[in-house]
Amino acid sequence: MLVRGREMAEFVRSRLRDAVFGTQDGLISTLGAVTGIAVGIQSGEAVVISGLVIIGVESLSMAAGSYLSAKSQRQYLERLLREEEQAILKDPEGERRELWAMYRARGYTDQEIAIMVNRLMSDKRLLLEDMAHKELGICPAALEEPVGNALVMGASYIVGGFVPLIPYFALSLPMAVPVSIAGTLIALFGFGGLKGRLVGLTWWRSGLEMLGIAGLAAFAGYMIGRLANLWFQY
Q: How many whole angstroms separate alpha carbon 228 and alpha carbon 35?
């Protein structure tokens, strides 16, 4: 049950990280880009086309980055596990001494340690799991899943990216810009609040933090668009 709990915790941590990063980046980067394009080019069609291209390219890029990162981390941890497995096979008595030292440092009695160590030494798989967890901080059954991470990252970016773009499909440009900004900021505050609840933080503080970052990105995009518009006018 404890191992299952660790597996689930690692799974949720990994997926939550990619979902938060993907959605947040989709919302913020797309908002900044389409706001800048809308102000600079003054064309709703150009905003929609550019927004779709940005979402498509960036979602694939983010998914690829997540896949490669997760794969590299998994390969590194698998190497550590192989090394630990080889150490168990080559020097089982050395591993026994390490177990005694670890459990003694945690305050167990010699009688309790003897029972636990004998049980672990009788099962090499169980011994590897225990040593990996206590010595390396690794849960062998809960390593990163590169494909799953990539899918979550890419899908989250697409979902986040469409929030600031949708108003440009239905509204005139002068109305779409403020609606896009307002809708995205509301979504960011809500998403930040949800993230705060999931990780045990004050929901409104987490929402305001994400809202502040997005506001700066939107303002930067707006100013870049204005400067580009002024530049090409002269």
A: 12
Both structure tokens of 164: 């600031």
Give the helix ranges, DSSP H, for the chain.
2-41, 44-90, 92-105, 110-121, 124-131, 146-165, 167-170, 173-199, 203-233
Tens-place pLDDT, residues 91-104: 888 888 988 998 89
Cβ–Cβ under 8 Å, residues 154 and 57: no
- Residue 58, CA distances (Å) to 23, 93, 183, 185, 218 in order: 12, 52, 21, 20, 18
117 and 134 Cβ atoms separated by less than 8 Å: no
> pTM for the full model?
0.80
Report the alpha-carbon distance of residue 32 to residue 29 in Å, rounded: 5
pLDDT for the residue 128: 87
* Count of domains observed in the chain: 1
| Contacts of residue 126, Cβ cutoff 8 Å, sequence gap at least 6 | 119, 120
- What is the maximal distance between C-alpha atoms in the chain? 86
The length of the chain, given as a count of residues: 234
Sign for the CA dihedral angle at 189, 147, 13, 11 comes to positive
Residues ≥6 apart with Cβ < 8 Å to 224: 36, 40
Tokens describing residue 15: 């997926």
Check: CB of residue 185 under 8 Å from CB of residue 27.
no
How many Å apart are CA 160 and CA 194, to the nearest integer? 14
What are the tens digits of pLDDT across the range 122-157? 888 888 888 888 878 787 777 888 999 999 999 999
Q: Containing domain of residue 174, as a range?
A: 2-233
